[in-house]
Give the backbone structure.
Amino acid sequence: MSEQGTVHAADYLQRADALRASALAAVPANVLEVLRVAKRLWVVPHERPDADALGAALGLKAILGQRGAEVAVISADAPPAVYDVIPTIREVALEAPDWAPDAIVLVDCADPRRAGRIGDLINALPAATPRILIDHHVSNETTWPLAWVDAHAAATCEMVSLIALALEADLSADQGRLATTLAAGVIMDTATFQHGNTTPRTLEVGGLLLAAGAPISEISRKIYRSKPLAQVQLHARVLASLTTADAGRTVFATMMLADLTESGANLEMSEGIVDALAHVAEADVAIFFKEDGPAAARISVRTKGDGPDATAITGAFGGGGHARAAGATIERPVSEAVALVLARVTELRAHNVAG
């Protein structure tokens, strides 16, 4: 971090005390009990992790570490460079440790399949190993007995912050590094508290993390307002392909693998393009199509106003997420994926009118 947040000790303690009762009421008791007693844990984010998945995993590692637990954060994919704003990012391992865990914690995803190759390792563990799931996606329909799914939480990092309070961990520890780790996820998933998923509790948690030393403005700047030239050139190239459908109510753009090569960018630099599409005032559905090989496409969807539920769009293709932000992978070439998804949006619009 080039700048450090300032820990406001008295303010932090007051805010923590005010939130602790609601934290204890929110976090399932059986989840807390396992987190209290486990001595060795694997914490696993979803594949291609974002700031919320990484922040939740690394935040939980630090929280449980304060209780003397040994925790490994294991990811199927290396963290994108943009998330170096998380001070503990280099603690993410790409391979499992050589010790067996007392418990598994899956964060920011619905099941081990979303954890990529690490999900296979989870499934291979003894059935008696407790498995905890912590997530905020409305599309999560897990049946795990040890699960906390809160679709009203703006971010999984918001939920992990409450876990910290329930376990009486110190969020201001290590000169605010823990608070910064969790704040990165909250800022990412709310676009610095601008999205409609921001609730009074989200703002309370944000204030708590700020008081605990998280430099909110610096985190926001690094995630949203600091991009290398190649990334800006990639965005310009892809946004030039912007097209409309449904009389302008749907906007979409497509990124082919050649666009990465010709702009000198990498895949992680495509982050933020769908949000730029969503800025179009006349549209209530924005879709970003990314070529993921000769016969696969990834889609990111944003909706607003009277637009269809984003999970209703992506759910038809095995994806999920939130009502206003969702994604999926479609095992078809991009051109076919575009036709299928646009047809689904039109279908949902017709259903809404008929209803």
Notes: The chain has a mean pLDDT of 93.
